[in-house]
Amino acid sequence: MSRIVAICAAGFLLLQLSCRDFGASPGTITVHVFENVTVSVPGIKVLLVETGDILYTDSSGNAVFTVIPGSYTLRLFNIGTPGPGRPFVDVPVTVGDGENVRVSVFDCRLCV
Fold first, then answer.
1. What is the pLDDT confidence band of residue 38, given thresholds at 50, 70 and 90?
2. pTM score, two decimals?
3. In the predicted model, is pLDDT for residue 49 greater than 90?
4. CATH classification at residue 61
5. Residues ≥6 apart with Cβ < 8 Å to 18
6. Which terminus has fewer CB within 10 Å in the chain: N or C?
7. Is residue 31 a part of any domain in this protein?
8. Is 31 exposed, middle or buried (0-12, 13-18, 19+ CB in 10 A)?
9. Which letter, b or e, does each residue of 84-101 get, where b requires 16 or more Cβ atoms within 10 Å of its Cβ?
Protein backbone atom coordinates (compact mmCIF):
# COMPACT_ATOMS: atom_id res chain seq x y z
CA MET A 1 0.00 0.00 0.00
CA SER A 2 2.76 2.46 0.91
CA ARG A 3 4.48 1.66 -2.39
CA ILE A 4 1.37 2.70 -4.34
CA VAL A 5 1.14 5.93 -2.34
CA ALA A 6 4.82 6.64 -3.07
CA ILE A 7 4.34 6.01 -6.80
CA CYS A 8 1.25 8.25 -6.90
CA ALA A 9 3.07 10.98 -4.99
CA ALA A 10 6.05 10.78 -7.35
CA GLY A 11 3.74 10.94 -10.38
CA PHE A 12 1.94 13.95 -8.93
CA LEU A 13 5.25 15.71 -8.23
CA LEU A 14 6.46 15.08 -11.79
CA LEU A 15 3.20 16.40 -13.19
CA GLN A 16 3.47 19.57 -11.10
CA LEU A 17 7.09 20.13 -12.10
CA SER A 18 6.35 19.65 -15.79
CA CYS A 19 3.63 22.32 -15.67
CA ARG A 20 5.85 24.99 -14.13
CA ASP A 21 7.90 27.47 -16.10
CA PHE A 22 11.18 27.31 -14.16
CA GLY A 23 12.87 30.64 -13.56
CA ALA A 24 10.22 32.69 -15.36
CA SER A 25 8.92 35.69 -13.47
CA PRO A 26 5.49 36.98 -14.44
CA GLY A 27 5.23 40.29 -16.19
CA THR A 28 2.41 42.67 -16.99
CA ILE A 29 0.79 44.14 -20.06
CA THR A 30 -0.75 47.54 -19.44
CA VAL A 31 -3.09 48.65 -22.20
CA HIS A 32 -3.79 52.38 -22.31
CA VAL A 33 -6.57 53.62 -24.59
CA PHE A 34 -6.66 57.34 -25.32
CA GLU A 35 -8.61 59.75 -27.53
CA ASN A 36 -6.12 62.59 -27.37
CA VAL A 37 -3.22 63.65 -25.19
CA THR A 38 -5.44 64.53 -22.23
CA VAL A 39 -8.45 62.21 -22.68
CA SER A 40 -8.33 58.53 -21.71
CA VAL A 41 -11.10 56.17 -22.78
CA PRO A 42 -12.77 54.01 -20.08
CA GLY A 43 -14.95 50.98 -20.72
CA ILE A 44 -13.10 49.51 -23.72
CA LYS A 45 -13.27 45.69 -23.82
CA VAL A 46 -9.80 44.11 -24.10
CA LEU A 47 -9.38 40.39 -24.79
CA LEU A 48 -6.05 38.63 -24.26
CA VAL A 49 -6.58 36.15 -27.10
CA GLU A 50 -4.19 33.40 -25.99
CA THR A 51 -5.65 33.11 -22.48
CA GLY A 52 -9.25 34.20 -23.05
CA ASP A 53 -8.96 36.79 -20.25
CA ILE A 54 -11.16 39.86 -20.68
CA LEU A 55 -10.75 43.20 -18.95
CA TYR A 56 -12.31 46.62 -19.46
CA THR A 57 -10.30 49.82 -19.35
CA ASP A 58 -10.76 51.71 -16.09
CA SER A 59 -11.46 55.43 -15.64
CA SER A 60 -7.83 56.14 -16.54
CA GLY A 61 -8.14 54.16 -19.79
CA ASN A 62 -5.97 51.32 -18.46
CA ALA A 63 -6.35 47.54 -18.31
CA VAL A 64 -3.56 45.47 -16.73
CA PHE A 65 -2.95 41.78 -17.45
CA THR A 66 -0.46 39.66 -15.45
CA VAL A 67 1.16 37.12 -17.77
CA ILE A 68 4.02 34.66 -18.03
CA PRO A 69 6.71 35.58 -20.59
CA GLY A 70 5.59 35.03 -24.16
CA SER A 71 3.90 36.51 -27.22
CA TYR A 72 0.30 37.63 -27.01
CA THR A 73 -2.44 39.30 -29.04
CA LEU A 74 -4.54 42.03 -27.48
CA ARG A 75 -7.94 42.39 -29.12
CA LEU A 76 -9.64 45.72 -28.45
CA PHE A 77 -13.31 46.10 -29.34
CA ASN A 78 -15.15 49.21 -30.61
CA ILE A 79 -12.00 51.20 -31.29
CA GLY A 80 -12.46 54.02 -33.79
CA THR A 81 -10.09 53.73 -36.74
CA PRO A 82 -9.74 55.76 -39.93
CA GLY A 83 -11.56 54.25 -42.90
CA PRO A 84 -14.29 51.63 -42.73
CA GLY A 85 -15.29 50.63 -39.24
CA ARG A 86 -13.86 47.43 -37.79
CA PRO A 87 -15.39 45.37 -34.97
CA PHE A 88 -12.00 45.01 -33.28
CA VAL A 89 -8.30 45.85 -33.51
CA ASP A 90 -5.55 43.30 -32.79
CA VAL A 91 -2.27 44.44 -31.27
CA PRO A 92 0.66 41.99 -30.93
CA VAL A 93 2.83 42.23 -27.81
CA THR A 94 5.75 40.25 -26.41
CA VAL A 95 6.57 40.10 -22.70
CA GLY A 96 9.98 39.06 -21.40
CA ASP A 97 10.89 37.58 -18.04
CA GLY A 98 9.56 39.95 -15.35
CA GLU A 99 8.95 42.67 -17.96
CA ASN A 100 6.22 45.27 -17.67
CA VAL A 101 5.04 46.28 -21.13
CA ARG A 102 2.86 49.31 -21.85
CA VAL A 103 0.79 49.42 -25.03
CA SER A 104 -0.95 52.66 -26.03
CA VAL A 105 -3.88 52.50 -28.44
CA PHE A 106 -5.41 55.56 -30.09
CA ASP A 107 -9.21 55.55 -30.19
CA CYS A 108 -10.34 57.92 -32.93
CA ARG A 109 -13.84 58.87 -31.76
CA LEU A 110 -14.22 61.24 -34.74
CA CYS A 111 -13.55 58.30 -37.09
CA VAL A 112 -16.56 56.30 -35.92
1. confident
2. 0.76
3. yes
4. 2.60.40.10
5. none
6. N
7. yes
8. buried
9. eeeeebebebebeeeeeb
